Amino acid sequence: MNALKNPAHRAWLVLVVATGITWYLGEVGAAGTAAIVAMLVIAFIKGRLVILDFMELRGAPWFWRILLEGWLIVVGGLILLAYWVSLK
Known about the structure:
The protein has 88 residues and is an all-alpha fold. Helices cover 78% and strands 0% of the residues. It contains three helices and no strands. α1 packs antiparallel against α2 (33-54). The longest helix has 26 residues, at 62-87.
């Protein structure tokens, strides 16, 4: 298990598991606010892992991290807002 000492390998494993969970939620037809929020949280975690580990911004200046993670929060928030508005 020396491969799991590498942060990129750990991130990749989390991404695979998170993708499997999202796929399963889609296959079983999960619907409703809880399912949507769960999928958005999973997407946020996956996006953050890609930004920090695969784009190698974990050790980057704070400006770049805030810029990209902020973008991720804004996009996720807008998707959640669009879903909430569609319920009205």
